[in-house]
Specification:
195 residues; mainly alpha
């Protein structure tokens, strides 16, 4: 099962993402989020801004950690504590924004009318991802350093088409679920408005 989840599923997710996105474009799907901004602006702003800022900073942090892992392994002391706290704050910010967006989705009749099952499902996947990320940050300290020493080699091995899952299968279950959740999210993108 480890090979399926950590060696095969990331490739399946990326292939489905690429082919599914191209297929949706070729079949005339309009790239639209059926924007509800015109239906309700103020509540959207209060939820959307923290969600987007939080997720953007977290994704950029993951990306920088992947490209320059030595930045994270070389810092220590108060710098690492500051970095870890900031990452946690932005993770909480993204989670609060997502929760507010979900509440808005279920409490506004006009927005409920344009909501699909996939909208709800992918938001739940994101909510679990955010929750796992926060849990990992709180429960397993110095995440940026083990991200650089465990996750980056794993991700690079995936990128180089030679998956090495040995370090990943030794990680706590929350980390493993977070990895599988990331692949699941990528897999689902072509079937959702995120495309």
């Amino acid at each position: 099962m480890d090979i399926v989840l950590f060696a095969a599923f990331p490739y399946v997710a990326v292939i489905v993402f690429v082919i599914g996105t191209i297929w949706r474009y070729q079949t005339g799907f309009k790239y639209s989020s059926l924007s509800s901004q015109f239906l309700e602006t103020k509540r959207l702003f209060l939820a959307s801004v923290p969600f987007h800022i939080g997720i953007l900073v977290i994704l950029i942090g993951h990306f920088i950690g992947f490209l320059f892992p030595s930045l994270f392994t070389g810092i220590g002391g108060s710098s690492i504590v500051t970095f870890e706290v900031l990452a946690l704050v932005f993770g909480i910010m993204a989670t609060v924004g997502l929760l507010l967006l979900m509440i808005r989705r279920f409490t506004n009749d006009r927005i409920k009318a344009v909501t699909t099952k996939m909208d709800v499902f992918i938001e739940l996947v994101l909510l679990v991802q955010f929750g796992l990320g926060i849990w990992i940050a709180i429960s397993y300290g110095w995440g940026s350093q083990w991200y650089a020493s465990v996750m980056v080699p794993y991700l690079k091995s995936i990128w180089m088409l030679d998956p090495d899952i040995s370090a990943v299968i030794a990680m706590p279950a929350a980390v493993q679920l977070h990895i599988v959740g990331a692949s699941l999210f990528i897999f689902l993108i072509p079937f959702s408005r995120f495309v």
